[in-house]
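re the bet — no i am not wrong, look at it urself. input seq straight from the record:
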Amino acid sequence: MDLSVYFEPLDMPGLNPDDENRGKKQGDHVRAYNEEGRFPSLGDVEIAIIGAGEERGAFENEGCSLAPDYIRKYLYQLYRNEYHPCIADLGNIKKGHSLSDTYFAIKSIVSELAGNHIVPIILGGSHDLTYANYLAYATLGQIVNIVSVDPMFDLGQSEEDLHSRSFLSKIILHQPNFLFNYTNIGYQSYFVDPESVELMRNLYFDVYRLGVVRQTLAEVEPMVRNADILSFDVSSVRQSDAPGNANTSPNGFYGEEVCQIMRYAGLSDKLSSIGFYELNPRYDNHNQTAHLVAQMIWYFFEGFSGRQHEYPIKDKKNYIKFTVSIKNHKDRLVFFKSKKSDRWWMDVPVRTQLRNIYERHHLIPCSYSDYETACRDDIPDRWWQTFQKLM
């Protein structure tokens, strides 16, 4: 597929104008589409940056279409890590005549990149573009897990048009359905209808309140490690750290916390696309939010460079197997611990006839605390949620 037809070149002369530090910054080492007819070669590229300045689906956040180039301005001025992936910047997606045209472009681009083991980083734009990202995997016929860092669930009403506050319901109702699990990290209860929380639990989805997540941030790592798609809404960060959003609020994650989450995301072998949405430069005090998102992407790069290639588990010699018996429970709980990274997984039973369909989903990331829970004769929530879906 010729991806260049979907993009327009960057209008950012001199990605790194700093002559004194030439060769040391991110902008010096990115293959950028900055000249018509010279689309970057993707032969050995590991990460592709995509500008998606689309805001027709934005909910009361007009101006978020301007975000991609603001993020680039700060990202390409950051120093490069010692170990770094090969990165291409494909430019900005051409605006379609309708919102569905933009969805089609993102779907086509992401499916082509992910199908060739290149991780797309989508710089939005509004949060509804996550729906187009999901459609890319439907095109590939791949059942996926979505993790969203968001102060709310974006369910909307089933009869509503697709926009940034209703896209999740469209994903859930999409047929055929390729969503195995949805995880929300950091929802804020005063923004969420209690009935929506109950709906999520009835669907065996994983939702975690902001206060719970912040108490044990390390527990976010297995949540993110289970994702194929990570979708990040800037309004999940508190206003003092990220003012660049029309719907921001006083509470939310701190900047350093979301940077840690992005490093976890980079480390995950399973994660194959990520998007950053709802940054609005019109509200951004001294471009503080654009700078924060750039640093988050820098941490994603750092994590990506440290991937251990532990998923899927193939050679069991690199893992220690633990089996735990639970009283009054017929299935023993099976855990695997990596000898390389000390990370943990649980193997959840699945019916034989479904094993091929859910090959990527019955072995789920977990933490040492889940193993400790099992040793106390209790079933970890992560195990139980997955078991319900597989049975």
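see?? The CA atoms of residues 204 and 216 lie 22 Å apart. told u. also The radius of gyration is 21 Å. so pay up
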